[in-house]
TrEMBL record:
Keywords: Membrane, Transmembrane, Transmembrane helix. It comes from Pedobacter planticolens. The chain crosses the membrane at residues 12-36, 48-65. This is Uncharacterized protein.
């Protein structure tokens, strides 16, 4: 499928929807278990707290596993786009560019890239404005 502004975000159904839902349901269920166990026996309370701790750990693992992958990808994008800019101009990216703007600029083809970089710096375009301004979308099919 050809990538464009409307379909460039990536969702992995098993991760985002299935695992995410299971983590949220498990966390809610464990929290309810602790609430109900407060009035029960110490063993029930102990088990309920262990289950809650387990689901908190799983929730953090879910969050950070995605966050770490995205941060690594962002660093690669910055390096790739800085190299592309350097190969086209002989200069490094303007220091005014934010990471979110650089990430958005990766979708611009070389013919639009330099003009869009200059416009982004001059007009302080948001990532969404950058993506909308791209006429010939350059897909990124290798993202996390």
């Amino acid at each position: 499928m050809e990538q464009n502004f409307k379909n460039h975000t990536r969702f992995v159904p098993g991760f985002h929807f299935v695992l995410g839902t299971l983590v949220i349901v498990g966390l809610l269920g464990a929290s309810i278990g602790v609430f109900h166990a407060v009035n029960g026996s110490k063993l029930d309370l102990h088990n309920a707290f262990l289950l809650l701790i387990l689901f908190l750990a799983v929730a953090l693992l879910f969050w950070y596993s995605r966050n770490f992958a995205i941060k690594a990808q962002d660093r690669a994008i910055r390096a790739e786009e800085n190299l592309r800019y350097f190969s086209l101009t002989g200069k490094l990216f303007p220091a005014e560019l934010k990471m979110s703007q650089i990430i958005a600029l990766r979708f611009a083809p070389n013919e639009e890239f330099l003009g869009l970089v200059d416009r982004t710096v001059a007009e302080k375009l948001s990532p969404k404005e950058i993506k909308i301004a791209i006429k010939n979308w350059r897909g990124d099919y290798h993202r996390a």
